[in-house]
Amino acid sequence: MFLLPTCLRVEIVWSGGPEMAVELLTSIYGDESMSDIGVSRTDWDVFLHLCRIAAGLDSPTVGETEVLSQFRQAVALSQDSAHGLGRVLEAAVGIAREARRHLGEASNGSLGAVAARIAAADERVAIMGAGAMARSAARLLSGRELSIFARRPGRVAGYETRPWEESVEALANNAVVISTVPGHGPILPDQSVEAALRRRTGRLELIDLGMPPGFESLRDHPAVAYLGIDEIASSAGGKAVPAVEELVLAEAATSWHRLTASDRVGSVIAAMLDQAERAVDQEVQRFAGRLSGADDPEQILRQLAHTVARRVLHPPISYVGSTVRGSETVEVLAEAFGVSDE
Hints:
This protein is α/β, with parallel strands linked by helices. The chain contains twelve helices and ten strands. It folds into three domains: 2-108, Glutamyl-tRNA reductase, N-terminal domain (Beta Polymerase, domain 2); 111-234, NAD(P)-binding Rossmann-like Domain (Rossmann fold), CATH 3.40.50; 269-342.
């Protein structure tokens, strides 16, 4: 299984038929309720969808810069259990890289970049978090009075981060705060947040990019103008880039043909081996009784080997000899069996 959770989507891909969906989703979410949500795809539709996601073509901001990194990380995590998905996922990554090169300046950035453009009208801005979205926003806000608060010390887009313990002060002292921290639990103590907001002289513009949102409880607070990730995504205004759309479609079609042809080769080889195994098993059972007390067991084993060889070779020999075949077919068989005219 391949699992890709991003800010606005969860993609689940598995090897197997649609009939597995309910069982698989129940194993992830604990009940069957999620099986009625979302869109199901199979085969080629899945592959094209993955290519578009990795390239950022299905993001609110077309050409989103972070999604390819998220996709690659998800691929790396799934490799040990992906089985047949591995080649499909790597092909999608390769196509996405090519699309990213062609997008260039046509890319609309990321949700972090959209948040930065909204915050750009103010001089005092704070960012909470140090991940990809925080870096994207910080790069576009370079030159302003910018404070970045992180749980671990470091540098983000050239700025030294400030201790997380001081982050509550950002709510009191900045015109805009961009939070990129997921709200899996309380980000800051409620009492500290309320005390900081009471010290303000004007409303705080709070852009909450956490997934799940970390400051959803402040949406209706009188001291806060709250923008959540859904509002940011809606305002992104991403536009399709036809040349890149066509590139991804063409590259995906070529890769899909190659992937499915490879699968066909694998199934043919498996069937050939299975036929050979059956021939061996059946002939060994037939000849086994002759070996007991035989004067010349080597002759019996030789006869067994010849019989198995003829059974295995009979289908391709009949195929070539039954009618006139194209010279290419004969040449392929000659090369496969190492047959030379000399």
